[in-house]
Amino acid sequence: MALNAAIAQRLEEIAKMIEVLGEDQFRAISNSRAARNIDALPFDIATIADDKAKLTEIEGIGPKIADKIMEFAATGKMKEHEELKGKVPAGLLEMMKIPGLGPKTVRAIWQTLHITTLPALKKAIEDGTILTVPRMGEKAAQKIKQAMEFAAQGQARLWLGQAVPVAERIIDVLKHKLGKKVKHIDYAGSLRRGKDTIGDIDILIATPDIASAIEAFTAMPGVVAVLAAGESKASVRVRTDVDLSRWDVEDKTGPTVQADLHVIPDASWGAALMYFTGSKEHNIRLRQRALDRGLTLNDYGLFPDDREDTPPQQRGIKPVASRSEEEIYAKLDLPFIPPELREDRGEVELTATPRLIEVGDIKSELHAHTTASDGSLSIEALAAMAKERGFHTIAVTDHSQSSVIANGLKPERLLAHIEAIRKAQEKFLNRSGKPEITILAGSEVDILADGTLDYDDKILKQLDIVVASPHAALSQDGPAATKRLVKAIRHKYVHILGHPTGRLINQRPGLDPDMAKLIAAAVERRVALEINAHWMRLDLRDTHVRQAVNAGALIAIDCDVHAPDDYDNLRFGVMTGRRGWLTPDLCVNTWPAPKLHEWLKSKR
DNA sequence: GCCGTTTTCGGCCCGACTGTTTTCAGTCG
Questions:
Q1: Nucleotide nearest to A68 (CA to C1')
Q2: What's the DSSP call for residue A279?
Q3: Does the reported pTM lie above 0.85?
Q4: How far apart are CA A593 and CA A251, in angstroms?
């Protein structure tokens, strides 16, 4: 879906350029909204790029933007975009990416000092000429300088698995310092919605002792800078520390992240939690819905709308609902909407809360490595940990021969490994000789660049489970990737397509296959598509899961265990599944042993 | 530039914080 991304990027840039030129800002908002919606589309826009009627059916796309899409799809150019680029120097768009620098300020800097690049901006801050810009003082200049330095450090967004431990650590610190004075505390934002990357961490607290909360937050360990500390809000930059040893990442200590603490009145906890959880698009949708019902919604509650300028809570108006998210949704005639669904992707049409998958539903791990290839656990240790988690089945799926770096198994070693797995099974039998946990002999077999598998059929047939995954040739083009992966799905011995695109978030984009074709093949062959739960992968991603679920495809959520801690990544895989509206029935890992084993045998 | 069971024209979510101002503009979420 390279076209979706290319169009979205241009529309977003058009929006930014309109803003910096100081032209009609509603036009800017429209372009930006269209860009977001196109980026979130679950299908390739190329398939309807010659059909104006279909294009305008997409939310936020009217006749003008449809024309722009058709023009770009046909010619690879967008005239409006190019004309604006002629008027707006590229450096201005870079400047707007710096936190604290918005369109108005960038425009003012451009108009007064004719500055159009980041280096020139830096120089103007250093020599003080920036102070001649209207409304620009010493403090603002220093803030911009600091923000530029943070931006230069690179990675803007944190991995989900990096951010969650930081948020939990902050909550622990505040709970410890404030004890019983904490009425409510939780994290909100994209973290609570389970997005694969996180911009910043939002912590909400309800407590009578506001001063102590702000003090504890700004003074906690790991804080490198206090950005703001007001009466009801504080912002800091805090260090992250996560073991990244499985992949070779340059900065092993991890970057810093902005964390915001919002102090919330106890009575408006639900309204604030909802507001700060977002998404922005979901909130806008709810506010609109409130207005339609003669109500107005803000972060203090849902109030009767009397069209006064002063906010209702400041005039002592009693809210219709405010204490819990549940009661606010109810007053808006909606079921409770789980945070992972709050993306304005149709959830506001729901009439009942869907029973989404939960961590507790998972009863098996179907993708795990041992010391035979690149894992750190023995077969027995792997199985013991799975049993401890209440799983009925664990699949040992070490790498195949082509994965040389991962110590992949040549056929002879694989055959010996199968024997070792059968032996290990004997150690996990109860008194009546029944398995306490079923240990499957499997393999994570490489899908070679042309779609053939890394072992021949004679070998594959002897395995209880085959997870087929792409590991090399991850930069081949979309059509080649589609052909390759569909061929693997159609292979008679394959059960699961492992990390289908091979992406590493923030590191490499991975394959860009035609998902609709992959899903269709998977549905037909009853092959499960994996959500790899490692937070650097989360592959399938949320939008792909949604597509697969809509088509009725089977999904596997697996931790791709290499070390003991990897089992803990399950929750990130489950969050991604929930973002894709995944219900337990479609997820093979939730199936009871007989049903799972029967499915596996149906491929033999 | 999009959108519409009050509208095909006239709207477009709402509040806190900061810094630069003397009453508010800009940015953010």
A1: B1
A2: -
A3: no
A4: 42
